[in-house]
């Protein structure tokens, strides 16, 4: 930790015309010459959010379209001053993530602006699956029920609200598919422009669906990490002056949307925390934010304090966080992904180190599973509970089994697993291993024979 | 052949380059020579202060900065010792990822 400059985000009389995150003392003139747009940050209504703080060095910045600390490149995170938050007030809210508006960097008006109203997805008590696995109490938080069938609708809704406040009129992202759906659909709903940038070799379901929502769709001949790099390089180019890249320059807001998964799990369990949670790791942000949600609920007195364990799940073909965790490293060495779990195929996960911190702090562990195990996991979840998960859900279920087998996860402790997306998005994963029991003529005798 | 390389500078470092998104440097006369270390040395000579934003106090790449030599992330190559032949494009980019 370096003792970088800390500037009071709210007390600073200079903040009206500051370009957030881009001001070093004595460099104001140069800053004005930079080609990026000046974002006026005064009078912005971000609800309880008070500013941005660097997670590495603790430098403070005003709220704005900033995402990397100019002292150390560390990621920026929203800071809050929460008001009086009670279970009753939350329960009286809408059946969407907006019931938690008072815990998000959004205006109280966000709920009334055009958006997809994601969240409040079902928490399924998985009796059959629990029995098969020899577990006492198992729940599936099924985020395939979101408007574009993945948890990404949550984060995009929060980023979209931030984009409005910051005057960014085009919604954009680098995506492995799920985020592409969420951004294209959210922009369509709100009448905004969108430019979605994806690797060219995604599953058809992801490319075709995104294109159907309209907006611009750029398929890049490269992998996700290359697409992500391209988006980072586009920031600061005059072309993108009024673009909000939800997972780049709006990332501090976007990432907070993932907290709502944690809030919902606790509220749906009757305002209590589970003992164990298994969460897929791509960038690592979801895992980190679910933990943050649990800690906030404890601090705000909305749930009883209790120990809980957070477990991660990766596919072996892209398991940089698992590898670093197992090796006892704090730095995640990037890998080149090769797995069917494309929504988790981020070889250079920016939140990886923080995900490792959370798993270590809560005495959890991380699973790493083969593509064949992922396919088995998808089938088992569908067969036992009627939940058809995308590959990331298969990674979670296979990791659950692995962690049970190794004794790292307690079968008698209450456990929640996350399904982050719909299996219809990744039919390719199972298309070669499942199919009709028989293809027959429309005759009763054929049915009898086929089912004999 | 000229040892000059171009360096793409992220928005948060353009305070050091007078707002320029791309600068040219020649690392051939530095102690690091035609490697990433030499490029950063030459960059520091032209734009004082910029190197310590990219490297930490121990001289290693900061953990949330990605540097590419051509298309290759230097963490996959030889890090600061990665060769940078004349004409190479180098990109310095904040690490963010999330799909």
Essential attributes:
heterodimer, A: 452 residues, alpha/beta, Rossmann fold, 6-stranded mixed beta sheet, 4-stranded parallel beta sheet, 13 strands, disordered N terminus, B: 99 residues, alpha+beta, Ubiquitin-like (UB roll), 5-stranded mixed beta sheet, 2 helices, 5 strands
CATH top level assignment of the largest domain in chain A: Alpha Beta
Assign the CATH superfamily of chain B. Answer: Beta-grasp domain
| Estimated share of beta-strand residues of chain A | 5-15%
What's the overall geometry of chain A?
Answer: globular
CATH architecture of the largest domain in chain A: 3-Layer(aba) Sandwich
* Percent range of helical residues of chain B: 10-25%
- Please give the CATH class of chain B: Alpha Beta
* Main pleated sheet of chain B: 5 strands, mixed
Oligomer: heterodimer
Give the total of domains of chain A: 3
Q: Mean of the pLDDT scores of chain B?
A: 92
Helix- and strand-based class of chain A?
alpha/beta
User: How many distinct helices of chain B?
Assistant: 2
So what's the overall shape of chain B?
globular
Low-confidence stretches of chain B: none
Structural class of chain B: alpha+beta
* Mean pLDDT over the full residue set of chain A: 90
Task: Give a written overview of the molecule.
The complex is a heterodimer of chains A (452) and B (99). By secondary structure, chain A is an alpha/beta fold. Chain A has three domains: 13-80, no CATH class; 123-146 and 258-429, Rossmann fold (3-Layer(aba) Sandwich), CATH 3.40.50; 152-254, Rossmann fold (3-Layer(aba) Sandwich). Chain A has 15 helices and 13 strands. In chain A, strand 7 (193-199), helix 6 (204-212) and strand 8 form a beta-alpha-beta unit. Chain A is globular and about 70 Å long. Chain B has 99 residues and is α+β, with helices and mostly antiparallel strands. Helix content of chain B is 15%, strand content 21%. Chain B has two helices and five strands, in the order E-E-H-H-E-E-E. Chain B has a five-stranded mixed sheet, covered by helices on one side. Chain B is globular, with a radius of gyration of 12 Å. The N and C termini of chain B lie far apart (42 Å). At the A-B interface, helix 1, helix 7 and helix 8 of A face strand 3 and strand 5 of B.
């Amino acid at each position: 930790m370096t003792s970088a400059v800390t500037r009071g985000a709210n007390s600073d009389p200079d903040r009206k015309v500051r370009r957030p995150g881009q001001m070093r003392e004595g460099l104001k003139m140069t800053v004005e010459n930079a080609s990026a747009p000046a974002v006026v940050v005064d009078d912005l209504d971000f609800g309880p959010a008070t500013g941005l703080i660097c997670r590495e060095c603790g430098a403070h910045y005003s709220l704005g379209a900033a995402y990397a600390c100019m002292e150390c490149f560390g990621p920026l995170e929203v800071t809050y001053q929460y008001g009086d938050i009670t279970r009753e007030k939350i329960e009286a809210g809408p059946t969407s993530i907006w019931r938690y508006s008072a815990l998000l960097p959004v205006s109280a008006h966000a709920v009334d602006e055009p958006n997809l109203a994601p969240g409040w997805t079902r928490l399924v008590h998985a009796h059959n699956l629990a029995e098969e696995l020899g577990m006492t109490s198992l729940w599936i938080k099924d985020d395939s029920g979101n408007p574009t069938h993945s948890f990404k609708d949550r984060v995009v809704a929060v980023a979209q609200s931030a984009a409005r406040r910051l005057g960014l009129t085009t919604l954009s992202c680098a995506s492995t598919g799920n985020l592409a759906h969420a951004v294209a659909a959210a922009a369509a709903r709100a009448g905004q422009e969108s430019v979605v940038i994806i690797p060219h070799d995604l599953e058809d379901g992801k490319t075709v669906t995104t294109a159907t929502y309209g907006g611009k769709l750029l398929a890049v001949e490269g992998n996700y990490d290359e697409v992500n790099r391209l988006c980072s390089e586009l920031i600061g180019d005059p072309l993108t002056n009024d673009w909000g890249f939800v997972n780049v320059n709006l990332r501090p807001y976007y990432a907070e949307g993932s907290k709502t998964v944690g809030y919902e799990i606790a509220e749906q369990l009757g305002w209590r925390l589970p003992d164990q949670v298994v969460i897929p790791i791509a960038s690592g942000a979801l895992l980190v934010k679910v933990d943050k949600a649990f800690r906030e609920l404890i601090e705000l007195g909305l749930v009883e304090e209790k120990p809980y364990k957070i477990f991660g799940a990766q596919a072996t073909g892209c398991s940089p966080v698992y590898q670093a965790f197992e090796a006892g490293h704090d730095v995640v060495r990037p890998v080149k992904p090769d797995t069917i779990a494309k929504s988790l195929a981020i070889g250079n996960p920016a939140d990886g180190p923080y995900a490792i911190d959370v798993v270590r702090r809560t005495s959890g562990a991380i699973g790493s599973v083969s593509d064949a195990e992922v396919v088995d996991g998808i089938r088992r979840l569908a067969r036992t509970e009627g939940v058809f998960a995308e590959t990331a859900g298969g990674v979670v279920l296979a990791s659950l089994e692995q962690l049970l087998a190794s004794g790292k996860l307690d079968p008698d402790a209450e456990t929640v697993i996350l399904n982050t997306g719909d299996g219809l998005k990744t039919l390719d994963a199972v298309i070669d291993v499942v199919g009709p029991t028989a293809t027959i003529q429309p005759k009763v005798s054929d049915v009898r024979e086929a089912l004999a | 052949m000229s040892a000059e390389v171009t360096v793409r500078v992220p928005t948060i470092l353009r305070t050091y380059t007078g707002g320029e998104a791309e600068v040219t440097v020649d690392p051939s006369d530095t102690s690091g020579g035609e490697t990433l270390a030499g490029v950063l040395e030459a960059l520091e000579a032209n734009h004082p202060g910029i190197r310590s934003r990219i490297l930490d106090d121990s001289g290693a790449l900061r953990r949330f900065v990605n540097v590419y030599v051509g298309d290759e992330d230097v963490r996959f190559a030889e890090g600061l010792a990665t060769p940078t032949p004349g004409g190479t494009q180098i990109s310095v980019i904040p690490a963010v990822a999330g799909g």
